[in-house]
Design goal:
By secondary structure, the chain is mainly beta. The chain is 7% helix and 35% strand. The two termini are 65 Å apart.
């Protein structure tokens, strides 16, 4: 439907003037603008959909059938999942928003399973983000889009050293350990809640992070031993930080400072695996943490290169699968 101009007094429109007017209006009707600044329209021959960016001069052409016109052309731009163009010949061209590559929708595997040369009469994007397609000879198609599952979250202060460990807490917060030896606590939206910089907290480069059933965080570090973060609302940072490092003078200390990972078994015990000191079983006695390992307390500890049968570690030290 087009608006019709009111003729000036004593002026008559000829047939040619009307034809030119509706041709211009028809051309304007099939021009589409998208939020990325691109303009979409058919070329003069009606054999290609042209996308161009007037500011950059970038342009791309997507061939369409110029044979016959059975439907009214239509263009739909989704917020994240690309662009759909229904040509007058009843074909739908899909354009990927990342690569800007175009493909005839009927050639995609899901549609070829039904009929490889499907033609469509109309398409509509509903309020729930579902795309509905009516085909000429194969019923109705509903296209649902996979939600955006991934996004890149940059670390604070331009930290681009890389992430070595990550752990999600039960409240949805995420603990991130960077190669820079800084540790970050983010909320579910990726916003920074707390920064544990190495200069002040000495946590170190984390290999592995684990949250136990009491919401304590156990951080396995490269060279800085085992670090425990205990929730404590009275502390400015929200946690009490305890470091456990190997001490040759203390038989109950952890057996090595290169800690690979921790695990809590079904008996709620914490096991600690180190690169330079083997396996440790952690027990709290009299308010003090004690580590039992091959140097102290673990009998029949296997030699290097042998698989460990946890039943041989000693009486009362049965093993449970971590999980």
């Amino acid at each position: 439907m087009y608006s019709v101009p009111v003729t000036a007094k004593n002026r008559k429109w000829t047939l040619g003037m009307w034809q030119q007017y509706f041709a211009r209006k028809s051309k304007e009707h099939f021009v589409y603008h998208t939020p990325n600044g691109c303009v979409w329209q058919l070329d003069e021959s009606h054999t290609a959909l042209v996308c161009r960016n007037p500011k950059t001069g970038w342009e791309r052409r997507y061939p369409v059938s110029g044979v016959g016109k059975v439907v009214e052309p239509k263009f739909i731009a989704t917020s994240h999942h690309g662009y759909f163009y229904l040509s007058g010949a009843g074909e739908i061209i899909y354009i990927d928003p990342q690569t800007m590559e175009g493909v005839n929708l009927a050639f995609l595997p899901k549609f070829q399973d039904h009929k490889p040369d499907s033609h469509f009469l109309n398409m509509n994007l509903d309020k729930d983000g579902l795309l509905w397609l009516t085909s000429a000879d194969n019923g109705i198609f509903r296209v649902s889009f996979t939600p955006n599952q991934f996004r890149v979250i940059s670390l604070p202060d331009g930290d681009k050293s890389g992430v070595k460990a990550i752990c999600q807490l039960k409240n949805g917060d995420v603990l991130v350990g960077a190669r820079s030896k800084n540790v970050y606590l983010l909320d579910m939206q990726g916003r920074v809640k707390q920064v544990f910089d190495y200069a002040h907290h000495q946590i170190g480069s984390i290999y592995h992070a684990m949250c136990d059933d009491r919401q304590n965080l156990w951080l396995s570090t490269k060279g800085d031993g085992l670090v425990k973060l205990t929730p404590d609302a009275s502390r400015p940072i929200g946690y009490r930080i305890d470091h456990y490092r190997h001490d040759a003078r203390d038989p109950y200390s952890i057996s090595g400072n290169n800690v690979y990972m921790t695990c809590q078994d079904s008996y709620h015990r914490i096991w600690v695996a180190t690169l330079d000191g083997g396996l440790n079983l952690l027990q709290e006695q009299g308010g003090k943490m004690r580590f039992y390992n091959k140097y102290h307390g673990m009998k029949n500890y296997p030699g290097y290169g042998l698989y460990m049968d946890a039943r041989n570690l000693g009486r009362g030290q049965s093993s449970e699968k971590c999980g």
